[in-house]
Specification:
The model has no long low-confidence stretch (mean pLDDT 95). The longest helix has 19 residues. The protein is 41% helix and 19% strand. It folds into 4 domains: 38 residues, no CATH class; 165 residues, Alpha-D-Glucose-1,6-Bisphosphate, Chain A, domain 3 (3-Layer(aba) Sandwich), CATH 3.40.120; 222 residues, 3-Layer(aba) Sandwich (Alpha-D-Glucose-1,6-Bisphosphate, Chain A, domain 3), CATH 3.40.120; 105 residues, Alpha-D-phosphohexomutase, C-terminal domain (TATA-Binding Protein), CATH 3.30.310.50. The protein is α/β, with parallel strands linked by helices.
């Protein structure tokens, strides 16, 4: 069926007022119609994610209903008496989509536990396990721009679903007509019947108690840290300030512009703590208050960014740097506290800094490399749990500002990470050191693994084709050198046999001099991501290599 035919069917069938109005507004506009209907949102291991609006290539009540109906079919086939947990963040229509999903699950006879207010993504991962659910859903687009929303799906282990599960769910979704096949039971009726129930504060208390249990700061260390915390108008406001205050970090300032949940993100159009623009409001408040530390969590509070006060102003700590600092700090504290397990395990993704390997070796920690995506880190915790060794896991992180130090959830956790960062800051402050000082000491010990992420956007169907063409070109004509550096080895993660990992569209280049570069399409946005990791003997050498690689890949991407 052509995209025009699908559009015409939606015009006749889609009675939601907002969607109907948008469909009417694009009548006769072939390009606008094609963009909304040339494909269906792909259901991958992260569920759905897309721009809000009308069409099969958009996030709306119909695409959410269709996905939930397919997921319901899968759950009913896979579990005797399935149940799900649902959470949602502050994004536009997150509450509506959460309610829609709950009604569809209920219409399919699936028991629903739903948070009555916005909550962080890690609290959903926790609730799935705490309430012994068959799966879970979080309505969020994480750190994407305001025009996006998404639908993350979790398995009974609290991890985002595996590739095999995603494939089976997609097959079920493919058989669903969104205007005919979706079963729904009105929310209030399902609530009265008990098939939908609200997740109680007791679950929230158990989650926060688990975060508390991951604390590693010894008693007696002063916690006189002046903190600016911004939830970037997201779900972090529900847990982060409370968690920090309960641990003695009481000097917290929350920017008024970003303290209230708001899916429009009026002062932060791209609420991603990886980029400086997202932190500008928080930095202004830090300067105004003279605070020591800035923390910023993304809208669903699974990522956290930070900046620290120095003599030269505020220095942003990258995800790779913070992960390395936390890994070193946790090892140091657990050895000092006598809580380091026998045969400890840490986990990182393949595009995350090699510095982690140097740190792990120093402390006798086994470091496992997994594919990009925190679900693979969660999977490693699950594997340890199956053999009764979950306590061996001490830390996992990815370069994109995701961290987790306990096995109580199976996803990155901005609440847990915020507490650890504050504890680490307080520990080093008591020694007269800043995190920048400690980072410099680490670079001097292990080498300057300063990294940079390049992101190239490719919008629309033509952009998607170009993005795939660039990846195909790298495979059909492999470069022998990159930016004048000889390619000593290239690992193609589509070759499962060569990597021992599940297939993934990633190319990783090992270059002369110990430098690395990796290229992959984003799994959540129409972007190509390039990860640059020089291995310099000095900051200047590392920066020079980054500059050369940046120029090379920017030209390659046609920018």
């Amino acid at each position: 069926m052509s995209f025009q035919s699908i559009y015409e069917r939606w015009v006749g069938e889609a009675h939601d007022g907002e969607i109907a109005a948008e469909l009417a507004s694009i009548a006769g506009d072939g390009a606008a119609i094609e963009d909304r209907f040339y494909r269906e949102l792909a259901f991958g291991t992260g569920g759905l994610r897309g721009v809000l609006g009308a069409g099969t290539n958009r996030m709306n009540v119909y695409t959410v209903g269709k996905a939930t109906q397919g997921l319901s079919v899968y759950l009913n086939e896979s579990f005797k008496e399935p149940s799900v947990a649902i959470a949602y963040d502050s994004r536009i229509h997150s509450d509506l989509f959460a309610k829609t999903a709950a009604e569809v699950f209920a219409g399919n006879g699936i028991r629903v536990h739903i948070y009555p207010r916005l909550m962080p993504t890690p609290s959903l991962s926790f609730a799935v396990r705490d309430l012994k659910c068959s799966g879970g859903v979080v309505i969020t687009a994480s750190h994407n721009p305001a025009k996006y929303n998404g639908y993350k799906v979790y398995g009974p282990d609290g991890c985002q679903i595996t590739s095999a599960a995603a494939k089976a769910i997609q097959a079920a979704i493919d058989g669903v007509d969104p205007f005919v096949d979706v079963k729904r039971l009105e929310f209030d009726k399902a609530l009265a019947a008990g098939i939908i129930s609200y997740i109680g504060e007791d679950t929230v208390e158990r989650y926060l108690a688990a975060v508390d249990g991951a604390s590693v700061l010894p008693a007696g260390v002063a916690k006189d840290v002046a903190i600016v915390y911004t939830p970037l108008n997201g779900a972090g406001i529900s847990c982060v300030p409370r968690c920090l205050k309960e641990h003695g970090f009481t000097n917290i300032t929350i920017p008024t512009e970003q303290g209230t949940p708001d899916g429009n993100f009026p002062t932060c159009p791209y609420p991603n703590p990886e980029i400086r623009e997202a932190l500008e409001v928080g930095l202004a408040w830090a300067e105004k208050t003279g605070s020591d530390l800035l923390l910023a969590t993304d809208p669903d509070c699974d990522r956290v960014g930070a900046a620290v006060k120095t003599e030269k102003g505020y220095t942003l700590i990258t995800g790779n740097e913070m992960g390395a600092l936390l890994l070193d700090f946790i090892c140091k504290m657990r050895m000092a506290n006598g809580t380091m397990p026998a045969h400890p395990v840490a986990v990182k993704t393949i595009v995350t800094t090699p510095l982690a390997g140097r740190i792990a070796a120093r402390y006798g920690v086994e470091l496992r490399d997994v594919l990009t995506g925190f679900k693979y880190i969660g999977e490693q915790i699950g594997l340890l749990e199956k053999t009764g060794e979950a306590e061996r896991y001490i830390f996992g992180f990815e370069e994109s500002y995701g961290y987790l130090s306990g096995s109580f959830v199976r996803d990155k956790d901005g609440v847990n990470a915020s507490l650890l960062i504050c504890e680490m800051f307080a520990w080093y402050k008591a020694q007269g050191k800043s995190l920048v000082d400690v980072l410099e000491e680490m670079y001097q010990r292990y080498g300057y693994f300063q990294s940079k992420l390049l992101s190239f956007a490719f919008e629309g169907s033509s952009g998607m084709a170009k993005m795939h063409g660039l990846m195909d070109g790298l495979r059909s004509t492999p470069p022998e050198e990159i930016a004048g550096l000889t390619v000593e080895k290239c690992v193609d993660y589509l070759d499962e046999g060569a990597t021992g990992l599940p297939r993934s569209n990633v190319l990783r280049y090992f270059l002369a001099g110990g430098h690395e570069a990796a290229v992959r399409p984003s799994g959540t946005e129409p972007k190509l991501k390039v990860y640059l990791t020089p291995a310099g003997k000095s900051q200047e050498e590392s920066a020079a290599v980054v500059e050369k690689l940046d120029r090379y890949f920017t030209q390659w991407a046609g920018r």
